[in-house]
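Q: Given only this backbone (430 positions), what sequence would you predict?
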């Protein structure tokens, strides 16, 4: 989150960042009513039809195809709408009622009954319910977030899952697959730092036979170790690929794990995974099954593999960016320019009844500036000892990835930011 920034009660955040009082929104050709928690912005709505992972030649499309090729016998899905109910996004996956992801400060809501998915796991129950037993699903997901070179409110995830019959026959299938994958990995240039498949701190689910759960967790790890070889274990490596497993927590899996890869001199978090919660399969009406799932961010991996330094570049329409990539090939990005930064500060007093959350401020910036801001930082915050009013100063770093910005142009944009800030949140500019 933004350093030193004011943190207000999540319940206090309002959709004022929209700067409008419209009773409806037009989204993907349909009209939806708004209400008191609507907080989706025009800038976000404009991204919904882009679907970068389906654009031939785009780095995200190539990475998606590479992973789909690794799991060639899985069902490949990529056409689900980003609009889901909060129940589908959270409740079907055992998210607790007080989970921060439900808040309007963290997620985008069309209204109280409809939101933008925050993860591809929102479709797990639906896909399992259709009878799919091994599948990959790629989609754009949406989260309110800070502004910097590695965070963007729209990104792309890939979900993978496999389930087995919870029977002797099903477990024999798991054992045979584990033997096959172990044989492959034993002959590959890889070193794996593992953790126990089950542990008191990473437990088996009460509904599961511990032996079955351990076999499935092992299958998950072996399958993903093989995927890491596909993604990072290039044939010209002299040193072995190093992969390490870490215990984790996710509401919808147990046991749960994160995977890190040592790549270009540092450990990088790649994905989260685990044994699927039985409640998820029960909701999908899939009896007597047990299995695993993983989720990974395509931008995170593509930035590593292609050496792309700023997440905004994935949205660039500049041919100097797009022409560097071809479908099926991973090439090193060559920066075509280094345009100078232009820093502008905005200082203001918050109203006594403050309702500005830092993600509201970042959404306002994105809505006014598009992708012209590289990062936003809080440079000063203090509370007046007599009036008890809070003052904030944000430093906005204007820098386009495609062209030079004149000081006059930035001043004009900054004026719009200040005007929207006053109108939407009632702040007093200092």
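A: Predicted residues:
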């Amino acid at each position: 989150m933004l350093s030193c920034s004011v943190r207000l009660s999540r319940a206090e955040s309002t959709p004022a960042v929209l700067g409008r009082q419209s009773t409806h929104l037009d989204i993907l050709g349909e009209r939806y009513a708004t209400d008191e928690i609507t907080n989706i912005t025009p800038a976000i709505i404009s991204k919904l039809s882009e679907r970068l992972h389906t654009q031939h030649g785009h780095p995200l499309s190539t990475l998606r195809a590479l992973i789909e090729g690794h799991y060639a016998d899985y069902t490949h899905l990529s056409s689900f709408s980003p609009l889901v109910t909060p129940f589908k996004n959270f409740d079907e996956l055992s998210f607790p009622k007080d989970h921060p992801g439900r808040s309007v400060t963290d997620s985008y809501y069309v209204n109280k009954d409809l939101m933008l998915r925050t993860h591809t796991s929102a479709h797990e129950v639906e896909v399992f319910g259709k009878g799919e037993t091994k599948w990959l699903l790629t989609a754009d997901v949406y989260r309110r977030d800070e502004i910097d070179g590695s965070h963007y409110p729209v990104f792309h995830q890939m979900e993978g899952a496999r389930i087995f019959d919870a029977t002797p026959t099903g477990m024999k299938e798991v054992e045979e697959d584990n033997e096959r994958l172990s044989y492959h990995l034993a002959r590959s240039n890889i070193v794996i730092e593992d953790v126990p498949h089950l542990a008191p701190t990473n437990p088996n689910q009460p509904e599961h036979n511990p032996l079955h759960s351990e076999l499935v967790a092992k299958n998950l790890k072996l399958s993903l170790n093989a995927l890491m070889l596909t993604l990072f274990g290039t044939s010209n490596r002299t040193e072995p690929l190093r992969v390490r497993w870490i215990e984790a927590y996710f509401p919808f899996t147990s046991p749960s794990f994160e995977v890190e890869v040592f790549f270009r001199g540092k450990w990088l978090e790649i994905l989260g995974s685990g044994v699927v919660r039985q409640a998820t399969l029960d909701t999908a009406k899939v009896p007597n099954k047990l299995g695993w799932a993983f989720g990974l961010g395509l931008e995170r991996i593509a930035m590593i593999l292609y050496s792309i330094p700023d997440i905004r570049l994935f949205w660039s329409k500049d041919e100097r960016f797009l022409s560097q990539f071809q479908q099926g090939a991973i090439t090193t990005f060559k920066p075509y320019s280094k345009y100078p930064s232009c820093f502008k500060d905005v200082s203001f007093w918050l109203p006594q009844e403050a309702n500005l959350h830092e993600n509201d401020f970042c959404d306002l910036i994105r809505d006014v500036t598009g992708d012209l801001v590289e990062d936003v930082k809080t440079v000063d915050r203090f509370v007046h000892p007599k009036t008890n009013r809070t003052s904030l100063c944000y430093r906005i770093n204007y820098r386009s990835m495609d062209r030079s910005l004149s000081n006059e142009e930035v001043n004009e944009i900054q004026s719009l930011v200040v005007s929207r800030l006053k109108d939407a949140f009632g702040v007093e500019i200092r």
